C-alpha cells in the first residue's frame, strides 16, 4: 500500500508502513483485523489542503483519491493599509482584504459608532457597510475617524482591522470674542478655536510682531482627539500698551487662516463683576405680567444667559463698599415684591452707560436676592 500527494507530479509519502517524507508530519497506522491502512496527518495547516491517493499494488493496480478540506478562521491580509489620508472634497476607498475557508464576509463600521455617510457629510448613510471596499464620496472633515473592518466566516475567531482615515484641510480660526474689555492692571485671556488637519502651527501677533511666552504673556493650547484645538493668549498686568488688535494665525500644509481680537480698556476696576444678559428677554416683569404670583418667587429667579432674542449688553455689579462715597446720582427701582433697590451712577446722566448697584444699601432684606440690573438710556 502506498500513499501519495495527488499533485502533478505525485509525491510519495509512504509505502507499506515506512514513511519517506516529513516523518514528523505523517504517520501510518494499520489494522490487521479490518485490513485497514490509515494515513495520519499531524498539525494540519492550510497548505495541507488537497488530494491524497491510496494505491494498492495489485494486478491491475487499484487507487483511490480523497480530498482534504479544512476550515480556516478568517484573517486580514497584512498588506491592508492601516491609515489613509485624503484631501477634503475628494473621494476615497478603504479596502480590506481577508482570507479563510469558507471565504469570509466583511463588514465596516466606525469605531465611534457614528453613521457612515457615503455621499458628503450629510448624505445618506448607515451604521454598517457590507463589502470589502468602502467608498466615500466628497469626503468631509466629519468623516475623520477609525474605520473597523470585521471579517467572519463562521469559524471562530473573527478578525478585525482598523483603518485610520485622515481628512486634510486648511485651517479655520474662530475667536471666542472679537472685542474684549479689561481694566488697567487686570488680566485677560484671548481665546481662538481652530479646526485643521494636519494640526496647525498657531501663533499670536500684535502689530505684526509675534508674541512669545514672557512675564507679560502666557501661551497655551489644548487639542481634542480629532481636528479641534483651543489656543489661549493670556495678557498679565494689563498696561496701556497692551490695548489694541491681536491676531491669532493658524498654519498647516494646506493653507493658513487668522482671526483678530481687539482688546479695549474697560471702566471696571478689578473688584467689579461684568454680567452679561439679553435686553428685553423678560428677566424683570413688565406691566403686562401676572400680578398674582407669590412675592417670595423674586428670591428664586435665575438669569438665562442663553436667550438670544436681542442684542447683548454689559451691566456692572459693584461689590466695593467704598464705591458709595463716590456716587453722584441715585436712582431707585421697585421689585415685584415691593422692595426698593438703590442704584447709583458715577457719571452725569448725559454720559451714563451703565447702572451700579450699591451693596451698602439700607435695604438689608435684599441681601439674599438675585439682583437683576436694568440699563437706563438717556438722550
From TrEMBL:
Residues 284-298 have a biased composition (Acidic residues). Gene3D superfamilies: Immunoglobulins. One of its GO terms (cellular component) is neuron projection. PROSITE patterns: IG_LIKE (PS50835). Pfam families: Ig_3. Keywords: Cell membrane, Disulfide bond, Glycoprotein, Immunoglobulin domain, Membrane, Repeat, Signal. Residues 284-316 are annotated as: Disordered. It comes from the Eukaryota. InterPro entries: Ig-like_dom, Ig-like_dom_sf, Ig-like_fold, Ig_sub, Ig_sub2, Neural/epithelial_adhesion. It is found in: Cell membrane. Residues 74-168, 171-264 form the Ig-like domain. The keyword Zinc-finger does not apply. PANTHER family: CTX-RELATED TYPE I TRANSMEMBRANE PROTEIN, DPR-INTERACTING PROTEIN ETA, ISOFORM B-RELATED. This is Ig-like domain-containing protein. It comes from Onchocerca ochengi.
Amino acid at each position: 500500500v502506498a500513499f501519495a500527494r495527488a499533485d502533478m507530479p505525485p509525491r510519495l509519502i509512504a509505502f507499506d508502513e515506512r514513511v519517506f517524507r516529513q516523518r514528523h508530519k505523517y504517520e501510518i497506522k494499520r489494522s490487521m483485523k479490518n485490513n485497514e491502512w490509515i494515513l495520519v496527518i499531524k498539525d494540519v495547516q492550510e497548505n495541507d489542503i488537497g488530494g491524497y491517493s491510496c494505491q494498492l499494488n495489485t494486478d491491475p493496480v487499484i487507487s483511490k483519491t480523497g480530498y482534504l478540506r479544512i476550515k480556516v478562521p478568517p484573517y486580514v491580509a497584512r498588506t491592508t493599509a492601516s491609515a489613509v489620508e485624503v484631501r477634503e472634497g475628494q473621494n476615497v476607498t478603504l479596502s480590506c482584504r481577508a482570507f479563510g475557508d469558507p471565504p469570509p464576509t466583511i463588514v465596516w463600521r466606525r469605531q465611534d459608532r457614528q453613521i457612515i455617510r457615503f455621499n458628503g457629510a450629510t448624505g445618506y448613510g448607515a451604521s454598517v457597510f457590507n463589502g470589502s471596499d468602502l467608498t466615500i464620496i466628497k469626503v468631509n472633515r466629519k468623516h475623520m475617524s477609525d474605520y473597523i473592518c470585521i471579517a467572519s466566516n463562521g469559524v471562530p475567531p473573527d478578525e478585525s482591522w482598523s483603518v485610520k482615515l485622515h481628512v486634510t484641510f486648511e485651517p479655520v480660526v474662530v475667536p471666542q470674542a472679537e472685542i474684549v474689555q479689561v481694566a488697567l492692571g487686570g488680566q485677560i485671556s484671548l481665546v481662538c478655536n481652530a479646526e485643521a488637519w494636519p494640526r496647525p502651527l498657531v501663533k499670536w501677533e500684535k502689530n505684526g510682531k509675534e508674541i512669545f511666552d514672557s512675564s507679560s504673556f502666557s501661551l497655551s493650547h489644548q487639542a481634542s482627539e480629532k481636528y479641534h484645538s483651543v489656543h489661549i493668549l493670556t495678557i498679565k498686568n494689563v498696561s496701556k500698551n497692551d490695548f489694541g488688535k491681536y491676531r491669532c494665525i493658524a498654519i498647516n500644509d494646506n493653507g493658513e487662516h487668522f482671526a483678530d481680537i481687539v482688546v479695549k480698556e474697560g471702566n471696571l476696576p478689578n473688584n467689579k463683576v461684568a454680567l452679561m444678559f439679553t435686553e428685553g428677554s423678560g428677566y424683570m416683569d413688565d406691566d403686562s405680567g401676572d400680578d398674582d404670583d407669590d412675592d417670595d418667587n423674586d428670591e428664586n429667579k435665575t438669569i438665562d444667559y442663553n436667550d438670544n432674542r436681542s442684542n447683548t449688553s454689559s451691566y456692572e455689579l459693584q461689590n466695593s463698599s467704598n464705591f458709595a462715597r463716590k456716587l453722584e446720582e441715585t436712582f431707585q427701582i421697585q421689585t415685584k415684591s415691593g422692595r426698593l433697590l438703590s442704584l447709583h451712577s458715577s457719571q452725569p446722566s448725559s454720559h451714563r452707560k451703565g447702572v451700579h448697584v450699591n451693596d451698602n444699601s439700607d435695604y438689608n432684606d435684599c441681601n439674599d436676592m438675585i439682583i437683576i440690573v436694568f440699563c437706563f438710556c438717556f438722550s
